Amino acid sequence: MSDKLDNIFEYEIIVTDMKKVFRPQKEPKVLHYRDILAQAGLEEKEAIVYETLLKNGQMAAGELLPKTIFKRGDLYNILYALKSKGFISEKEIRGRKRFEASDPGKIKDYLEEQKRKTENSRRLLDKILPQMMSDYNLFVAKPSVRCYEGKAGLARLYDELNASRPKEILLLRSVFDDQWPEIDRLVNRQIKKQIQLKIKTKALTPLVAETKKTYLNLDRQRLVERRILKKEIFSLPAQVLIWDETVAITSFRGKMITSIIEDANIALTFRIIFAYIWQASTKGHQAIVSRWQAARPEKHSNSGKFGRKLPAKKVLD
Question: What is the pTM (predicted TM-score) of this model?
Answer without folding.
Answer: 0.52
